[in-house]
């Protein structure tokens, strides 16, 4: 059986993996779905200090304090940058990296420049610049259309600290990081938008580590069976 750590994207929390977690646990796997500082059930901890390094530390500390090894570390969207940073710090605990509809760049803004427009809709609250304020338009932006899913998501989404999205990722152990097998699962919607790095996609395809799911961006919510099935396949590869 495998051990998974599922890291969410901007504005979300560990709650967004509920469907996938239940499917994986039903197969006997161990699953952790932490919530990053300042978001979801930890939204009360948001502060001007919360940045990308904070979130990387959240995940790296989980791997250490739970004494996890050979982990399948999964990052959705912004979470892809977080897991890359965590694997750079504690790579000896990571067996495989899975980028779940997670475009890559030195920062999330570089990976997905359209975020700069989202910043225009943000605001400063208690000294913290926040973006992705919950709304039905935001849910549709995440590619979720089922009314039940929308009703479930809306009260759980939380604004995201902008600082973490624009901070560049600093890697200190790149050779060890690149030695970890990397897998890419993308949504058909994001692939059509051309936001994913073509060279990385081509490399993943050539290695048999690339899958496309016919879904919107939040595919762990809109296509949980497909995501759980691929994660199981990846763990056994």
TrEMBL record:
Highest taxon above the source species: Bacteria
A Pfam entry, by short name: Abhydrolase_6
Domain named AB hydrolase-1: residues: 5-228
Protein name: Esterase
Origin species: Streptomyces hygroscopicus
């Amino acid at each position: 059986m495998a051990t998974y750590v599922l890291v969410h994207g901007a504005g979300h929390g560990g709650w967004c993996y509920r469907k996938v977690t239940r499917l994986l646990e039903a197969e006997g796997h161990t699953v952790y779905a932490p919530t990053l500082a300042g978001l979801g059930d930890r939204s009360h901890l948001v502060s001007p200090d919360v940045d990308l390094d904070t979130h990387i530390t959240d995940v790296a500390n989980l791997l250490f304090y739970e004494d996890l090894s050979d982990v399948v570390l999964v990052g959705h969207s912004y979470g892809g940058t977080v897991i890359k940073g965590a694997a750079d710090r504690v790579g000896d605990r990571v067996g495989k990296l899975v980028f779940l509809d997670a475009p890559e760049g030195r920062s999330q803004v570089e990976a997905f420049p359209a975020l700069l427009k989202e910043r225009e809709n943000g605001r400063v609250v208690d000294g913290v610049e926040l973006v992705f304020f919950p709304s039905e338009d935001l849910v549709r932006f995440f590619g979720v259309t089922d009314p039940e899913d929308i009703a479930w998501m809306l009260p759980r989404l939380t604004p995201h600290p902008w600082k973490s999205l624009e901070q560049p990722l600093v890697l200190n152990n790149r050779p060890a990081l690149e030695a970890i097998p990397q897998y890419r699962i993308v949504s058909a919607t994001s692939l059509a938008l051309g936001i994913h790095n073509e060279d990385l996609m081509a490399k993943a395809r050539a290695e048999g580590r690339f899958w496309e799911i016919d879904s919107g961006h939040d595919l762990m919510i809109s296509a949980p069976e497909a995501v759980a099935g691929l994660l199981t396949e990846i763990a056994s590869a």
